[in-house]
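Researcher: Please predict.
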Amino acid sequence: MLAGLIAVLALGGAAASGLFNPSATPGTSAAASGSQVAVLPSASATLTSPSPSEEPSPTPTPSPTPVPTPVMVAAPLDGLMVTPAQAKRHPIAVMIDDLSPARPQSGFSSASVVWQAPAEGGIPRYMLMFQENIPTDVGPVRSSRYYYIAWAAEWKALYVHAGGSPQALRTLRAQGGGQLVYNADQFAWGAYFRRVTFRYPPHNLYTTGKQLRQLATRRGATAAPAKAVWQFGPDASLEARPVGGRIEVDYQANVIVYKYDRATNTYPRYVTGSTKQQTDGATKVPVAPKNVVIMRMKFGPLTSDPETYKHRLEAQVIGSGTAWISTNGITIQGTWRKKSLTAPTLFYDKAGNPVTLTAGQTYVQVMKTSDVIRIKDGTVPASPSPSPSPSPSPSPSALGGARIIAA
């Protein structure tokens, strides 16, 4: 009896494990075969795949911190885009020598505007106007003349010089505390100047942009400049620029020639017949402004100082006169106007509309009414659809010809 019980238990275990069911079809359940034996799931079915939520999430890449776009504004004197801090720098005007022993002078490449006008003996003199740029060396610094004060007064500039004519010095004593300009005479502020050893006196007085800014602070010339008074536009497209072109202005002791360069849209400058382009003595950068303006003006002996004038000149700076404005390789004839000593010198075309200069450096050549001016226009290459120039449009007869203008 014990043996039978063991046999029954063995058969039951086999049936329970699903290993013994001769009548069952493989792959069918017990219900399908009519058997009471349950079929267990296969081993592969018992394996569970991990839930998608159980997979490790990739670490997100942090987004780069956006770099703010620098805010840029137009500089008041030349229309170039600069930082707000640069645009707020107070203008500085420096008188510069133009005798041959003074060349090459320093500071030209950093100036926003350069004025050149006759002085006694037919020797012209420069006034460099600095605003957004801080130059390295500047010099040689020379003496003041009244008509330069009138141009510096348009911006209440720090006016830097070494002495001057009696007329100029009287004006600076009376109105050099910010009424017209901020007087910065080397004889009163010598600590901000030095004598260089590579030039002999009086062509060896120099200063630096850093010293000039320090002197401006000492003199109280720190207010932001007034808004721009000249209109500026972008460079004309290459297709609209002419090929060639030349401007010549004849002072008695210096002949200035500009040869227009189409590729750079500038006017490389040459002095006293030199075949080499004028360069800045400090930076060695070639002198090549974006704009050249020629002003006709009446000059005469300084009769208000008959005993001390020493052949010095006075000029009719207030009023109006003929002007030639060259920009984007094209020269038009117009007028200049200045209503008062502190009013800006403005330029207009023949129709009386304000001209538009190209953003960048401007050279203003002030000439006597008897001085010779020669202008040879370039030729605009034929183009099916030339881009319009932002500057004054020339008349068809203004291109490809030569003009000699004299008294």
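Model: The chain has a mean pLDDT of 84.
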